[in-house]
Amino acid sequence: MDFVTPVMDVAARLWACTAKRVTYFRRLSRNLKILRTAMDELKGVYEDVRERVECEEKLQKKRTRSVENWIRSVEAMEREVEQILEEGNEEVQNKCSGTCFPRDPCGSYNLGKALPRKIRAVVALRSKVDHFQDVAVPLPNLLVIERPLEKIVGLDSPFLEVWRLLRNEQVGTIGIYGMGGVGKTTLLKKVNNNFLKPSHDFDIVIWIVVSKPTTLERVQEALRNKLEIPDGRWKNRSEDEKAAEIFSVLKTKKFVLLLDDIWEPLDLLKVGIPLLSTHRNKSKVVFTTRSADVCRDMEAQKSIKVECLAWEESLTLFWTKVGENALNSHPDIPKLSEIVARECKGLPLALIIVGRAMAGARTPQDWEKKIQMLKNYPAKFPGMGDSLFPVLAFSYDSLPDEAIKSCFLYCSLFPEDYEISPRHLIELWIGEGLLEEYDSIQEERNQGEEIIERLKDVCLLESGRSQKQEYLKMHDVIRDMALWLASEHGKKENKFLVKDQVGLIRAHEVKKWNEAQRITLWESRIEELREPPCFPNVETFFASGKCMKSFPSGFFVYMHVLRVLDLSNNYELVELPVEIGNLVTLRYLNLSKTSVENLPVELKNLKILKCLILDNMNSLQPLPSPMLSVLSSLQLFSMFNSPYKGDHRTLLEDLEQLEYINDLSLDLTTVSSAQALFNSHKLQSFTRRLRLFNCKCLNLVRLSPYIEMLHISFCHAFKDVQISLEMGGLQYSKFPRQGYCLYNLCHVYVSWCSKLLNLTWLIHAPNLKFLSIDDCGSLEEVVEVEKSQFSLIDPNFSLFSRLISLTLINLPKLRGICRWNQSFPSLREITVLGCPRIKKLPFDFNTGMNKNLEKIIGEQEWWDGLEWEDKDSMFNLTPYFRTTQSSKRLEFPFVPLQMIDRFQDSFKFL
Questions:
Q1: Rounded-to-integer distance, Cα 216 and Cα 242, Å
Q2: Judging by DSSP bridges, how do beta strands 709-713 and 687-693 pair with one another?
Q3: What's the pLDDT tens digit per position in 27-52?
Q4: How deeply is 69 buried, as exposed, middle or buried, from its count of CB atoms within 10 A (0-12, 13-18, 19+)?
Q5: 250 CB contacts (<8 Å, ≥6 apart)?
Q6: Closest CA to 569 of 526, 523, 600
Q7: Rounded Cα–Cα distance for residues 897 and 25 (Å)
Q8: Which of 606, 663, 683, 737 could form a disulfide with 441 if both were Cys (CB 3.0 to 4.6 A apart)?
Q9: Termini Cα distance of the chain
Q10: Whole-number Å distance between alpha carbons of 470 and 419
Q11: What Å distances lie between residue 2 and 6, 7, 8, 14, 723, CA to CA?
């Protein structure tokens, strides 16, 4: 019987284990029901606590850490219970038919065993609520103070971008910049007020208006008040000690610092702000400024430019300020209101001020009068001279010196929406003497380019591109403000006179110009005068447009201090007044795009003339001799795209004699003249723009490293380019085996060069922006890698990395740009017409889409026949494609070489 006892013991143990498991199976449904009931009760309590917390947070209180942890625990528990209940329901439904036993005993056992533990956990969470005395506590100071804010129109896009960045833990400092009155402060207020919502985890939001002059003491004092630093730790302390106190408080917090209206870089570390890159709490700094420079100097990780409003938003904001009563007072007023709104060009502050001024105008006549005032005398319009312009003028007042201020005001001499050529503008500044005097025009150009960049950075100038050329533009309201400043706040209305498309200017009006300093006429002409006008103070005179056929007799006689005379773009002007030769103070003369045939010999009297520009003058006859060689102060001479009818070699010899000449733009039409230029180290090194036209036997072109623009047309023997270098006093003609040597070359245009096989030398032009090639029948590849010595160039070399525009027309043998695909990161426009052998676009699709690309122009048949690496590339680029007619419409008629000389003036290649 001894063996019976152990057997019974084992059996008892097995029964106990089995009974326990059976109990879990039998109680599964009941425990699931208990868990569901407990969880529902916990969720009800959870909702009550959430409501209490939200009510307290609206009172600028902060939820306690215990409550925050409890809420997170409940949310996690809810997810776990939902999963258990789902699994339990499946087990109950899958029991063997007619029994209490599950189909999956092991799974059901584990689930049944877990249920009691989970029920106890839910009940424990529920019981913790009874220990909450407070769900939220008052902050030592308000988390965020709400800023008064009117109804906002627009700004949705920049707001969403700022808020997205505030949620990005990798971004600490955000800069918001834009022109005055564009809505930067409004945007920052909207960001501030959005922190009133509890959907963030920042401890404190601090708002400080910095403004001018920026002082560390004022910023520290504002922070001290917000952080409630006691007097004992503040008074009689040094700047560094105060910074340490601020730092000791902020380093323990997750904060947002909003700084409005910064005019110069602010050293946040000196203020006491913890270094955001190392601050473990992931705090943020957001600031507004009018200058992109400030964003860079303050090391903003992201900079957001606030642009003017779109038209629909502009009109909505304007109508909001005008009010329904005024808009509905007459059926014509809504249309008239659109005219007024357009004058504000989307600038919110202008729309608000002008809209409020028009709220009392209830008749069409009132609106029409105000429209004329706004267009012709904006400074006199209500609110402009006393409210709007002074605000905008802060940007002007903050410019670092008088030279930049004068250059800015000068831009207002152009008409509204005028596309200003940067090159033309800088040459005018040089002629006026606004730039610092240097030994070379190029150094003055560099200074001018720096000033332009400065004005763009502070949003007083805008940049754009038109007809494959870069240009500058002034916002209309900024221009009105500049004219107001130039007129000494409206006290001297005629100091800067700008007449645009006014038609015929009457004699009595001309008499009012005797106090003018600068006069510009655009698309306007002057009636014949009885006597020569007197302009004792005029330093600048522009007359540009198609209306000016001639000038009244003696018009220039009494311009004794005139510095700049620009008569360009007067296509019907055929004769130059002789008295211009007596303008002995003249420093700048521009006759481009006129039909003047003969320059008066009296121009030789212009002994201090610095700039003479004769571009695009197809009717110009040989210059009188001696004239050019005696202009002893001449530094800049430009005769670009002007087929010269005289002896080019004589012209070059005259230029060679000029002591100070250092900036040339030339148009040469014979091989002998081209060789004369290539053989003159002085002239070649000063040539910035060169056009070679109809140089039949010219097969090799030599360039200096200083060339900026090159046009070659109808040079049928042209094959290659060499560089002229000077080392140790000796002149070489070759390409260096390493590095770039055409660093300044930005614009290349080649056409009708029948023997040209490639343009491989372009690999030495890293800053090339515009490339146009047409009607070169032998061209097979733009860059032939085998001939490029590619391996000897910088290993980081990227071909055409700065190219903006590429035009390829009527090139029947052209296979492609280069056998190596390039990324073209700067390319905005590519045109391909009459190039049937180009089967692939020259992009390296592995580098991603070029974000600057705007359009691809070509024939539909060519586009449909392109080969693609993958469908994604085709789908990504198709939206940019613009179809055009066959390239045949662009072809020039065949011209025998012996006939070109006879009528070359009939062709004009830009």
A1: 10
A2: parallel
A3: 777 888 888 888 898 889 889 888 88
A4: exposed
A5: 227, 272, 273, 274, 283
A6: 523
A7: 105
A8: 663
A9: 121
A10: 9
A11: 8, 10, 11, 20, 114
> Tokens standing for 212?
């001018």
How far apart CA 367 and CA 590 sit, in angstroms, is: 41
Contact 717, 756 (CB under 8 A): no
pLDDT (tens digit, 9 = 90+) per residue, 563-615?
A: 999 999 999 999 999 999 999 999 999 999 999 999 999 999 999 999 999 99
Nearest to 648 by CA among 624, 620, 625, 676: 676
Give the bridge partners for 748, in sequence order: 710, 771
Q: What is the residue whose two structure tokens read 């150094």?
A: 443
- List of residues 6+ apart from 376 with CB closer than 8 A: none
Helix, strand, coil % in the chain, rounded to nearest 5: 40, 15, 40
- Compute CA distances 423 → 362, 445, 758, whole Å: 47, 8, 30
Can you tell me which residue has the tokens 């009392």? 360
Contact status, residue 379 vs residue 487, Cβ threshold 8 Å? yes
* Count of CB atoms situated within 10 Å of the CB of 908: 12
User: How far apart are the C-alpha atoms of 24 and 379, rounded to whole Å?
Assistant: 89
Q: How many CB atoms lie within 10 A of CB 535?
A: 23
Tell me the helices (H) and strands (E) count for the chain, helix number first.
Answer: 27, 28
- Tokens 């391996």 -> residue: 791
In the three-class reduction of DSSP (H, G, I as helix; E, B as strand; rest coil), residue 694 is classed as: coil
pLDDT in tens, 147-201: 998 889 989 999 999 999 999 989 999 999 999 999 999 999 999 999 988 778 8
Q: What is the mean pLDDT of residues 374-387?
A: 91
What are 775's two structure tokens?
């009607």
CA distances for 486 relative to 414, 480, 495, angstroms: 14, 10, 7
Distance CA 733, CA 751 (A): 24
The beta-strand segments (E) located in 103-231 are: 136-138, 173-177, 204-209
Polymer length of the chain: 910
Where does 606-699 show beta strands of DSSP type E?
Answer: 611-613, 636-638, 663-668, 687-693
Residue corresponding to tokens 């400080």: 208
- Which three-class secondary structure state does DSSP give residue 128? helix
Reading the block at residue 511, the tokens are 């008499």
CA–CA dist 114, 101 (Å, integer): 18
Query: Can you list the alpha helix ranges (DSSP code H) found in 94-151?
Result: 105-128
Six token digits for residue 276: 């955001």
Tell me the pairing of strands 687-693 and 469-473. Answer: unpaired
- Region for 395 from its dihedrals, namely left if φ exceeds 0, alpha if ψ lies in -120 to 50, beta otherwise: alpha
Distance CA 101, CA 84 (A): 19
Specify the pairing of strand 173-177 against strand 284-289.
Answer: parallel
**DSSP structure class, residue 232:** G
Q: What is the DSSP string of 298-320?
A: TT-SEEEEPPPPPHHHHHHHHHH
Residue 64's SS3 state is coil
The pTM (predicted TM-score) of the whole model is: 0.79
Which string of DSSP letters, residue by residue, matches 701-738? EEE-TT--EEEEES-TT--EEEEEEEETTEEEES--SS
Q: How far apart are CA 806 and CA 515, in angstroms?
A: 49
Residue 180: burial class (beta carbons within 10 Å; 0-12, 13-18, 19+)? buried
